[in-house]
Amino acid sequence: MEEIARNVFIETGLLGVTIAAIPFSGGQILIDSPFRNEDIRSWRASLVNLAAGGERVLINLDAHYDRTLGSRAMEATLITHEATATAFRSRPLTFKNQHIGTGAAWELSNNLGTIRWIPPDITFDNSISLYPDSITLNVEHHPGPMAGSCWIEIPEEKILFVGDTLPVDQPPFLANADIPAWIKSLELLGSAQYAGYRIVSGRGGLTNSTHTAALIKWLKSVDEKIKELGENSAPPEETYNMVPKYLKEFQFGRDLESQYSDRLKWGFFQYYAHRHCPTRAESEE
Fold first, then answer.
1. pLDDT value at residue 282
2. Are 111 and 15 in contact (CB under 8 A)?
3. What confidence tens digit (pLDDT) does each residue in 29-69 have?
4. Rounded to a whole number, what is the largest CA-CA distance in the chain?
5. Are strands 8-11 and 19-24 parallel, antiparallel or unpaired?
């Protein structure tokens, strides 16, 4: 666990997404959660060591399984965007640990057991603000990776949690993406509004907005290629040929190549199918 500002802690060492805790006099505000049982136990033990009060509030930055499978086990008041709540309602009551090759972190774990989804206690459409002690947490809707994708801004500390909007050294998830909306969100992230902010990526931890231009360029190229295939009435399987070209633009260890190849293969297929072959599309990663 790393303290990146006074009473703002992040954890990047667990399988899945970057998670965070903001302790205050009444308890803790948590951002996303681990999904493996051993990681959940470890994280909860760390929270006890922060020595705050007993109230616990959890904010999910979107509906991706990597950040939501552990939500019930955190035993917290859950806050999500309304689109994330809608995604939860569309899922089977009980999660099935079935590897389908989406390139997600949860698929690397074989002992998740039976998981029941928890409905959010509080939802919002555009934004919601929390005021723990002397700081402000502004939770705002910024679509792109998923319909309910959100950012959390702590203006007093110039810290911004952006979830999957800006992954670090890895390809993004595209199956449920809205690329034009994503590009707008990235342009905002790279604008003067967030100059000097420390950006916390949901996939890689601390980064900065200088990386936004490269991802915008990459996403525009992907969107243009998908449109070209659609104009030619190509089958969704044709998108598999895109993987080598678009994967090589990211820097990562060779041990991750198979996982990230699966991520793009699944993402390109679903992104294309949603737009050109709806009967072949699946709704979630």
1. 81
2. no
3. 999 999 998 999 999 988 888 867 789 999 999 999 999 99
4. 60
5. antiparallel
Cβ of 214: how many Cβ atoms within 10 Å?
12
Q: How far apart are CA 22 and CA 237, in angstroms?
A: 44
Helices 212-231 & 179-189 angle (0-180, nearest 10): 160
- Work out the pLDDT band at 285, boundaries 50, 70, 90: low
Taking the C-alpha atoms of residue 70 and residue 128, their distance in angstroms, rounded to an integer, is: 23
Q: Are 11 and 39 in contact (CB under 8 A)?
A: no
According to the 3-state scheme, what is the secondary structure of the chain?
CEEEECCEEEECCCCCCCEEEEEECCEEEEECCCCCHHHHHHHHHHHHHCCCCCEEEEECCCCCHHHHCCCHHHCCEEEEEHHHHHHHHHCCCEECCCCCCCCCHHHHCCCCCCEECCCCCEEECCEEEECCCCCCEEEEECCCCCCCCEEEEECCCCEEEEECCCCCCCCCCCCCCCHHHHHHHHHHHCCHHHCCCEEEECCCEEECHHHHHHHHHHHHHHHHHHHHHHHCCCCHHHHHHHHHHHHCCCCCCHHHHHHHHHHHHHHHHHHHHHHHCHHHCCCCC
Q: Please name each of the domains of the chain with its CATH number.
A: 2-215 (3.60.15.10), 217-279 (no CATH)
Structure confidence by residue, pLDDT tens digits, 237-263: 999 999 999 999 999 999 999 999 999
